[in-house]
Queue: 4 jobs
Job 1
Amino acid sequence: MARTIQQIKTELTTAFMADNTLAEKYGFTQGADFDSTFSKVSIENLLLYIVAAAIWTHERLFDTHKTEVEDIIARLKPHTLRWYVDKVKQFRYGQTLIDGTDQYDDTNLTDDQIEAMKIVHFAAASEAEGNATVYIKVATDNNGAKQPLTDDQLNALKAYIAEVKDAGVRVMLINEPADLLNLDITVFYDPLTLDAQGTSLLNRNKPAETAINDYIENLPFNSEFSLTALTNAVMQAHGVKLAQVNRAEHKTDTATGFTNISDRTTPHSGYYRINQLSTTYKPY
């Protein structure tokens, strides 16, 4: 990790002041404090700062290079879940692979055209012990909203996976609508900033409900939904003093009934959508 400019400069000034020849030429006591000896606008101070800044830039470039190399190695390494996620996100709808490879031909294609064909915007992989199966949850983006691939898109993705996957590994794609949430929340509000319906007296919006929706919509794909995190998000909203989740239920799109969430859970589809939101407001 790169040192700071000040750390580098301190090492340079320490060595400068410890040099016997320089001490004789300048007339300072060997080992004296640099800042007490030279002005901040002195040529010596400015030159050492420039050298320190150049060394810092050099070290940062090496850090960046190391990170890039490590990332490339991690992505190219086969038989990892991350490799499968990366491969799925590289899938291009409507383009065939170069025969006998897992690569596409980019000839005569612009960057925008390539990106437009990449329809898998969200993916997460997991594995089941003992049966060599990799489960990959996928979703696409529709104007900022996660949604499943169409049947044609899914069939094309399956054909692509069959070409690029490791031999002997079974891949199961999970491509489903959002898991549904029912939430019942009590919000204790500041009467000086919100009314009895939770509406801001100043902006006429509903900060608590906005915070709830933002928390759900901004959950990273396939990450945990947490009652504690949801409560904390609501309590950060303007005018909210306390928040209490009375009931939280979830189900997959095809399930017949809802299941209670006692603490935290991960969506089967990889993402959530609020089905019902009941918010009760009480003055604090």
Job 2
Amino acid sequence: MKRRTPLYAALATMLFVAPAQAKTELLFNLFIPRVHHFYKDHLVPWAAAVEKESGGRLTIKFTASSLGPIPRQFDLARTGVADIAIAQHVFNARRFVLPTIADLPFAGLSSEAASVALWKTHGKYFAKANEHKGVRLLAYIVIGPSHLWTIDKPVRTLADSKGMKIRAAARYAKNVVDGLGGVLIAKPGPVAYELISKGAVDATAFNIADIYNFRISKFLKNVTVFPGGLYAASFSMVMNQAKWDGLSKEDRAALMRASGEHMARLSGNWDEADRKAWGRIKKSGVNIIFASDNLIGELKAKFAPLEQQWVEMANKRGVDGAAALAFYKKTIAEEAAKSWRPTP
């Protein structure tokens, strides 16, 4: 038998070594500060899951600062300025109708429950409407429900909130503030500090953890807590379509395994942040008011038309709005049964 020469062995090795698989870095536009719990406890674990699921072929790179203003996040992904972005639906109101089911008053039982319910409702009812045309939808995120925080005057009745300037940002924020008899200051959360510190508003609708994330806790003396919140704020995590199309079938599958319902369940970290923040609030001296049955009843009467309006808008998009709403409510109730909620 002829003995192989070292050169022959080297050539054989070169021929039979599998080629290294290409790696793809995805640029994620980050418009929140890195100290925010959503970045640390939600986005970072998601990015790690993407890398793990893809066997290291996909990595996420977060921008040092936002590449565009908050209302333009969807367009940043659509036009390819960023590969991935998170867009709040309220800033794309003409495009997004269906996912704002999660923003309805008193519906935000918890961040995880709402995020999971919205993703499942999308798969069953919304996907065919193709509201995300131009991008690839990766996940939904619904943040913790918002309550009413005031700088000076506590709110126990509708008479107390009449005429108040209230900062809020969600699909139904105007309806909520109108119901309270206040004046809407429609600004996103990251500008709340500027408004509140300068006394430009009397109150703000905010979820529990964000009064610390955006450093406004020291200005707030009272909070009125509503079951399910006055509203929740929903977001789509979207990817540039061309970038998605350029991924291999295996990498697309890996990315969706880390996103979708998995990403929705990571929203449990938002609930945990709310729980920890609630402990701080109870020790801080903030005057905590749980909305009375009378106040809740008055507001529910004012908000009653909103669900029917959503159903009618969904019907116009080719979706059975009543069936979708019933499915969403059933799913979120099931998911929320195991969720934390603020208590006295």
Job 3
Amino acid sequence: MLPAIAFSATMLVYSSSSAQSLTPAEKTQVNQMIEELHQKLHGSSATNNSRAVSTLQAILKSPKATSQYYMACIKELQFDAVGKRESEWREWRERNEDRLKSTEHVAALQYQAKFLLLTLAVALEGDEAAGVKKVMPLLIDYYDDLTRDFDKLEGHRRILITPALESVFADRLKLTLTMPPLEKWIDAPLPISAVYDGVILPHFRKEKNHPALQAAWDKRIVHESKTLEVAGRGGALGLPVDLPAGIPEDIARRFGLDGRDSKREQQREDTRQKKISGEDFRKDRLPVLHWGKNRDALLYGPNAASSLQTLGRIIRENLAHSEAPNWLKELKSLAAGGPNAESDNPTANKP
């Protein structure tokens, strides 16, 4: 949209200030030149992005193809581009080839390339929300596969913490120059909790799709339990402090919740990964996830009374939990601001 607006603005300035001094033939010639430049500039971006999709699809056909392309990226970007000798490249390759061609390293590279492909799919859709909706089933499948293989990636997970657009794949494909910017999509596949907080759950909340939202919470619980790694936010276990990102403002107002603190908290969130034990997950993290799931059931589901009872049971069963006081405070707000609460507008609920 922005390139089109800029192009139109250029034509407007041209027509108002310069048209008087040009003959009809000259005007036609200038217009053709501008159109040609526009097509070359923006058409080349589309061509590059389309070529990148084809390249990534090709290198994902086999571990060997992934490894070969990765080595070609390293050679081009870190040796040829900076003027290093061929002998230096051969020496480096011989010293590192076994490690870089290991099954675990190549598997991590494939997950990085797959995530970059998903990122491209979102960006190329034009509308980011439409792109997220389109890739959502593939994104959840991606995390099913990643968490299944997670233990095999020990020692190479840093690859999956690296932003996809900072990978050697994106660098060689020049995607930072041609990809449109994304506002809400996450930068990297890990940590998983950041993906759910930033993309997956907000998507289903926006659609107000209660069954899909609850299913997404179930997936999150499974995925986090398999990885035992969460984003660093707030406390030592990354426990959420305020209303999570992705709750629409109309829903927050309806239940008397203030999303401003959560927005500030989201801005402060870092992307550190914190490894926790299975016991810590069961005692500390799992109740947090159950709380989030049932809070969303209250906000978007059909049975508010049942959801409030479930939230109360979570507090009752976890009285020693560090978040219990915050949960009780939130429960009071949710109960007081529910859908049957009196509106600020005295005529709002009248027919």
Job 4
Amino acid sequence: MEKSLVRLPEPASAPEPRQLWAKLGRVLAHVPFADDLLAAYYCALDEKTPARARAMLFGAVAYFILPVDAIPDFVLGMGFTDDAAVIAAVIALFGRHVNDGHRARARERLRSLRADRV
């Protein structure tokens, strides 16, 4: 019998925020897609976002946080290409749910993270 993908599991919870902020703070200079990553994160936290979109957005953020992925993050010049591809794919699929408010929160948090690094 073929399994149906009509009903995806709903997200149990967001990825651990401390892990996201710690990793993003360490690698901010090397992550040109940080604004999309955080906009996706804030969209996933928004309860108005449909469950399927939230699950996929949380999954993309979790993939960024995970230390083990297709291309290890420490590989010079290529380490974040798989993370960027995952974020880009999820934004392409569910970007209609990412609104100006999510993007504004992302920009503000990035400004704060950059100020903390100076």
